[in-house]
């Protein structure tokens, strides 16, 4: 295995020594490019009280290519599909090597606080969201309690 | 569980990227793509500008008017020359780098650039990623060999080249080189590394950045005033363009061939054929758009498949579909070993020739039908036929489904064997060629070399192998043709022409095999001795091949031949 680039080492050090509030990112012991991530649901969002697990992988071309990120915990969100894939511009064509793992995780946290049903990945969820926002929010809360509650983990 | 997730979770990314590329195309491009039915004419297809002005290199053949291109010529003509013409005519106030970025952004449509430019210049420049006209270009561009701390790779360098656009987002050349390499893959304009900075890197600079190694750019690359046709971003953009204009542009399908052809016009005697529904089952094979690339590879511009005459395109599609569906059953046939029909010894086929002899018992037999070679050779080459008597016998003992499969296998086997024979021929010719080269070298070392012998003297070998390969290709497709052909008197005439072609193809293949198999050193003498015979046979192949195709063409046109494709 090729040596880990200095950039990744620096980013990892800072993620551990100076963590973002509400977010943890721990590199896997056997693969330092693979991170176990948790994000707390933002308060005042339907995901409040939930703790969401994600996986994050830095491809060989990182930071020239975006990290690969996916939700492992089931979540009811118009921009996150059944497989946990996330529709977020900075993970796709708006990625820049000047962005970092922590900026990406912050963007994901912001996406939980402000779902965007007009740019959906999970079309059926987005439909529900647009048709009846109150019902959709209630559903998101139920899923959070069912799949992401800290007491059940 | 993390290991598992690692494997499968990200496999969808590729398709996402594709759709991104797709959505970046203008709707005009999509329209012209939808028009493709094989009957598209230049009047209703939006093509690259000025492509029809130049008649140089244009080939008119049967129903098709086309022009072969190299990728470099394509880039020169449709990208670089377009920028130069904008500079000379409509937009002299812009420089070439800016014009290339504008053209790239507007998918190389010059008219669109002019329209957007005069519509709202500031907005257009912003979208293209060009700096404001007044912006200060001081301190931007390349800086050679300075002390620098890069925020992307977080390294501190004592002596490194760095780069920035007029936005002054400066990073080290190592990072820029990697960034440009990765970004070049999708063929879109490459923007500044900084997030949310939209500025586009000029094509010329892309080449310069790509030339970097160990912290320094190649200065000869940086000195080039304008990008040239070897620019990798332009090459990738050209590939995208060709990929999204498949109705007009086709890559030659031959392996390792980098030529492409541009469809300029399709002409039909019968106007009715522009009707796509009628065209769908067209029987006029003179309409099949066979084009030839500068490397002499013939292919069908509609199917982007090798020359498949005498089959019309729709029969080829049916056949390929059928072969895919039945490949499981047919797989065993392609195996390259067969056991001797007499003693059962396993025999490997090594050349293109189908005349086999068992090294154990000496039995001579035909690779395809496994019957004794003597029976074959007598009156004419019988092996093509699906013997109806045999069919009758089979019919009695087996069900009709099995018969259908057998009928298919009969033709498929012959189709496939010519395909693998082509490979065999190729290998054999390489060996003969090698021996010839050795001989020529020895000859030239002699004090009194044979003056009658020159490299030009063995050119005929290459011509012969091309006839042999093309002959086999036609033969191969006659089995697809014959599979769908309804029984008729004329069909028998067609089969006879098929026999004739098969005979000369095998005869020529046999000579090559003999040349190759003889253990004695005087192979080259034999080649010279048999030169006339080889030339005659290769001429005969071309003649019989043309006759066969003409026979199929007139038979289909007159309704004497017809297909059964239930
Ligand atoms: Zn750097
Ligand atoms: Zn910038
Ligand atoms: Zn070619
Ligand atoms: Zn075709
Ligand atoms: Zn034998
Ligand atoms: Zn033989
Ligand atoms: Zn035979």
UniProtKB/TrEMBL annotation, chain A:
UBC core domain mapped to chain residues: 3-149
GO molecular function, one term: ATP binding
InterPro entries: UBC (IPR000608), UBQ-conjugating_AS (IPR023313), UBQ-conjugating_enzyme/RWD (IPR016135)
SMART domains in UniProt: UBCc
Active-site residues from the entry: 87 (glycyl thioester intermediate)
Pfam families linked to this entry: UQ_con (PF00179)
SUPFAM superfamilies xref list: UBC-like
Alphabetic keyword roster: ATP-binding, Nucleotide-binding, Transferase, Ubl conjugation pathway
PANTHER family: UBIQUITIN-CONJUGATING ENZYME E2
Family recorded in the similarity comment: Belongs to the ubiquitin-conjugating enzyme family.
Listed name of the protein: E2 ubiquitin-conjugating enzyme
Taxonomic source organism: Pichia sorbitophila (strain ATCC MYA-4447 / BCRC 22081 / CBS 7064 / NBRC 10061 / NRRL Y-12695)
Name of the gene this protein is made from: Piso0_005534
TrEMBL record, chain B:
EC annotation from Swiss-Prot or TrEMBL: 2.3.2.31
The gene coding this protein: Piso0_005894
Catalytic activity reported: [E2 ubiquitin-conjugating enzyme]-S-ubiquitinyl-L-cysteine + [acceptor protein]-L-lysine = [E2 ubiquitin-conjugating enzyme]-L-cysteine + [acceptor protein]-N(6)-ubiquitinyl-L-lysine
Sequence ranges of Polar residues compositional bias: 39-55
GO molecular function: ubiquitin protein ligase activity; zinc ion binding
Region (Disordered): 1-55
Organism: Pichia sorbitophila (strain ATCC MYA-4447 / BCRC 22081 / CBS 7064 / NBRC 10061 / NRRL Y-12695)
Name of the protein: RBR-type E3 ubiquitin transferase
GO biological process: protein ubiquitination
Keyword Zinc: yes
Keywords: Metal-binding, Repeat, Transferase, Ubl conjugation pathway, Zinc, Zinc-finger
All residue ranges annotated as the RING-type domain in the record: 146-387, 150-192
Superkingdom, taxonomy of origin: Eukaryota
Start-end of Acidic residues biased regions: 1-19
Leading EC class: transferase
């Amino acid at each position: 295995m090729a040596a880990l680039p200095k950039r990744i080492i620096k980013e990892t050090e800072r993620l551990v020594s100076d963590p973002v509030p509400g977010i943890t990112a721990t590199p896997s012991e056997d693969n330092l490019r693979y991170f176990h991530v948790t994000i707390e649901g933002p308060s005042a969002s339907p995901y409040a009280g939930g703790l969401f697990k994600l996986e994050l992988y830095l491809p060989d071309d990182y930071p020239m290519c975006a990290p690969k990120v996916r939700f492992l915990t089931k979540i009811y969100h118009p921009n996150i599909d059944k497989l946990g894939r996330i529709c977020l511009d900075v993970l796709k064509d708006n990625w820049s090597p000047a962005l970092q793992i922590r900026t990406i995780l912050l963007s994901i946290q912001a996406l939980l606080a402000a779902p965007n049903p007009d740019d959906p990945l999970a079309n059926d969820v987005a439909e529900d969201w647009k048709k009846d926002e109150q019902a959709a929010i209630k559903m998101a809360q139920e899923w959070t309690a069912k799949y992401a509650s800290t007491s059940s983990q | 569980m993390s290991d598992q997730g690692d494997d499968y979770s990200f496999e969808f990314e590729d398709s996402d990227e594709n759709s991104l590329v797709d959505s970046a195309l203008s709707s005009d491009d999509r329209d012209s793509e939808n028009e493709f039915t094989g009957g598209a004419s230049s009047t209703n297809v939006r093509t690259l500008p000025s492509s029809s002005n130049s008649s140089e290199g244009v080939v008119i053949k049967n129903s098709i008017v086309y022009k072969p291109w190299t990728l470099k010529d394509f880039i020169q003509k449709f990208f670089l020359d377009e920028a130069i013409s904008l500079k000379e005519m409509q937009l002299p106030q812009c420089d070439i780098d800016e014009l290339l970025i504008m053209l790239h952004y507007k998918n190389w449509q010059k008219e669109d650039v002019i329209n957007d430019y005069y519509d709202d210049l500031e907005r257009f420049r912003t979208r293209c990623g060009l700096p404001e006209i007044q912006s200060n270009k001081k301190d931007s561009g390349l800086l050679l060999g300075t002390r620098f701390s890069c925020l992307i790779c977080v390294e501190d360098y004592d002596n490194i080249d760095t780069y920035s656009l007029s936005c002054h987002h400066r990073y080290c050349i190592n990072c820029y080189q990697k960034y440009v390499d990765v970004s070049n893959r999708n063929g879109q304009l490459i923007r500044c590394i900084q997030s949310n900075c939209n500025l586009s890197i000029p094509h010329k600079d892309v080449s310069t950045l790509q030339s970097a190694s160990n912290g320094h750019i190649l200065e000869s690359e940086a000195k080039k005033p304008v990008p040239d046709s070897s620019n990798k971003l332009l090459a990738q953009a050209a590939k995208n363009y060709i990929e999204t204009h498949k109705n007009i542009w086709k890559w030659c399908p031959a392996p390792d061939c980098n030529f492409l052809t541009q469809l300029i016009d399709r002409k039909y005697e019968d106007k009715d054929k522009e009707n796509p529904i009628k065209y769908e089952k067209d029987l006029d094979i003179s309409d099949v758009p066979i084009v030839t690339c500068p490397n002499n590879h013939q292919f069908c511009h509609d199917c982007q498949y090798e020359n498949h005459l005498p089959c019309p395109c729709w029969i080829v599609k049916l056949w390929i579909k059928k072969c895919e569906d039945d490949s499981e059953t047919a797989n065993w046939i392609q195996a390259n070993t067969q056991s001797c029909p007499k003693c059962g010894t396993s025999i490997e086929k090594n050349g293109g020739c189908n005349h086999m002899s068992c090294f154990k018992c000496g039995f001579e037999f035909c690779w395809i039908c496994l019957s004794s070679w003597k029976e074959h050779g007598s009156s004419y080459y019988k092996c093509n036929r699906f013997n109806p008597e045999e069919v009758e016998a089979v019919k009695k003992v087996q069900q009709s489904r099995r018969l259908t499969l057998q009928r298919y296998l009969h033709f498929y086997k012959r189709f496939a064997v010519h395909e693998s024979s082509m490979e065999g021929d190729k290998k054999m010719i390489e060996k003969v060629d090698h021996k010839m080269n050795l001989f020529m070298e020895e000859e030239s070392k002699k004090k009194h070399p044979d003056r009658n012998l020159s490299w030009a003297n063995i050119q005929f070998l290459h011509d012969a192998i091309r006839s042999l390969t093309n002959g086999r290709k036609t033969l191969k497709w006659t089995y697809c043709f014959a599979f769908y052909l309804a029984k008729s008197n004329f069909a028998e005439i067609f089969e006879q022409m098929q026999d004739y072609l098969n005979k000369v193809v095998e005869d020529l293949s046999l000579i090559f095999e003999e040349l190759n198999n003889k253990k004695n050193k005087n192979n080259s003498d034999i080649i010279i001795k048999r030169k006339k015979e080889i030339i005659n046979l290769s001429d005969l192949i071309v003649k019989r091949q043309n006759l066969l195709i003409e026979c199929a063409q007139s038979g289909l046109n007159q309704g004497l031949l017809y297909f059964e494709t239930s």
